[in-house]
Amino acid sequence: MNTVFRFLAAICMPAISAAVTAQDININSELLTAARAGNQVTVVALLQRGASANSRNRLGDTPLNIAARNGRLEMARALLAAGADVNLANVAKVTPLMSAAFGGHEAIVRLLLDAGANVAAADRVRKTAMVYAAGNGSTAVVRVLLDRGTDVNTRYDNDLTALMWAAGQGHAETVRFLLERGADAAMRDNRGQTALVMAESGKHDAAVALLREARSKTAQH
């Protein structure tokens, strides 16, 4: 009898295991689809049914990364509560914090930082959350990152600073804010260019005016 049982178990268990695995893959796929569609109710329901908060699509995006990119605060909160890894990056090494910073989603940036997001992480092209925020003119996110301890004059890839990124993209409001927070307009990147030179090259008149004023005040002192 035991021999028969072992024989049946040997035949059936792989099939059962395969069925469970297929079920897991299906529910995780459903979770990613619901996150992409912004369907909060379905996301919560799938998490309660056992879907993995750290499921990943073919690009390596997790539901949290998708939620952060699209500004879905409550979804991000639910995913973190379900155990989502706040620092799990996609194949391009973009983390949820970078995604939220890129989109200018201040509340999600705060949530992720509270959950332990690594503010210094860099993606495949060596951009950080601050680089994305400053380069996109997301002044509110820049403020949060500075308030949470990021040095305003940190040098990023190619010795570029947040001020240089904001100036080069013509984001005058962000330039003004960074100067008010102590950004050094005299700093140069690895090509020897200042934020002013970058703003002038891009013909960003409002940023140019702010940086010239900052240079004049520095010269007076």
Word description of this protein:
- With 221 residues, the protein is mainly α.
- The protein has two domains: 1-125, Ankyrin repeat-containing domain (Serine Threonine Protein Phosphatase 5, Tetratricopeptide repeat, Alpha Horseshoe), CATH 1.25.40.20; 151-221, Serine Threonine Protein Phosphatase 5, Tetratricopeptide repeat (Alpha Horseshoe).
- The chain contains twelve helices and no strands.
- α1 packs parallel to α3 (63-69), α2 packs parallel to α4 (73-81) and α5 packs antiparallel against α6.
- The model is unreliable at 7-20 (pLDDT under 50).
CATH superfamily of the largest domain: Ankyrin repeat-containing domain
How many helical stretches? 12
Rg over alpha carbons:
24 Å
| Content of β-strand | under 5%
Helical content, roughly?
A: 55-70%
Average predicted confidence as pLDDT: 91
Anisotropy-based shape = elongated
Q: How far is the N terminus from the C terminus?
A: 95 Å
What is the N-to-C succession of helices and strands? HHHHHHHHHHHH
Overall tally of structural domains = 2
For the record, what CATH class of the largest domain applies?
Mainly Alpha
Q: How would a crystallographer describe the biggest sheet?
A: none
Look up the CATH topology of the largest domain. Serine Threonine Protein Phosphatase 5, Tetratricopeptide repeat
CATH architecture descriptor of the largest domain: Alpha Horseshoe
| Strand elements, count | 0
Unreliable sequence segments: 7-20
